[in-house]
Amino acid sequence: MTNDSGCHERIFFFDIDNCLYSPELGIDRLMKERIFALGRDIGLDSHSVEDTCNNYYKDYGLTVRGLVKHHGVDAAAFNGQVNGSLPIESLISPDPALRQMLLSIKTRRWAFTNADIDHARRVLKSLEVDDLFEGITFCDYSEPDFACKPERIAYEKAMREAGVVDARLCYFADDNAQNIEAAIKTGWTSVLVAKKSDKLGSATIEHHIEAIHELPLVLPHLFA
């Protein structure tokens, strides 16, 4: 999806998982359990499957990239056994405060996730904010060597799909410090959403909040 009319307007890219909802919901843990189970199902050693999957995450940005690249895992099978099996609707509730915050921001709004499109839509719908985003930049796991955060090409893809050419117009919120650092290098104004006890990454991180609802505290000029 593109929006040429908005190419000169400020735009806010929002990560979805563990950013628009609290990581305390445990969705990340459930996802990892399913990924490890899939690894065992395709023949990875049960004693080292967690290390193998975690190394793929570090090397490729997403575990699924390593599973596809080195083990021929089918993207549809991955989505079915991992993302598609998550009980999103029973874990994530509508968030009126999030909705109000998004409505009050004086920029365009765009979702930017490393998840697949179906998972992204399920989460946004469960939060009841799916109607507030112009579009979603997502990962198509069926594409060979698909781009994902924190690769620079992923940020360029998000800008291209959103129809924006000036990085100085881009704002970004994510729970992953590496993703934030990559966005800063791309020229985006970025906000890390994470508990203070979590690893915050390098000193280059511009803004830090513990929950997405606190966004107006660090970027007050963007809100009505």
UniProtKB/TrEMBL annotation:
An example molecular function term from Gene Ontology annotations: nucleotidase activity
Name the InterPro entries for this protein. HAD-like_sf, HAD-SF_hydro_IA, HAD_sf, Pyr-5-nucltdase, SSM1_domain
Q: What are the recorded Gene Ontology BP terms? A: nucleotide catabolic process; pyrimidine nucleobase metabolic process
SUPFAM superfamilies assigned: HAD-like
Gene3D superfamilies in the record, alphabetically?
1.10.150.450, HAD superfamily/HAD-like
Q: What is this protein called?
A: Suppressor of deletion of TFIIS
Give the organism, scientific name. Coemansia thaxteri
Question: What taxonomic ancestry is recorded?
Answer: Eukaryota, Fungi, Fungi incertae sedis, Zoopagomycota, Kickxellomycotina
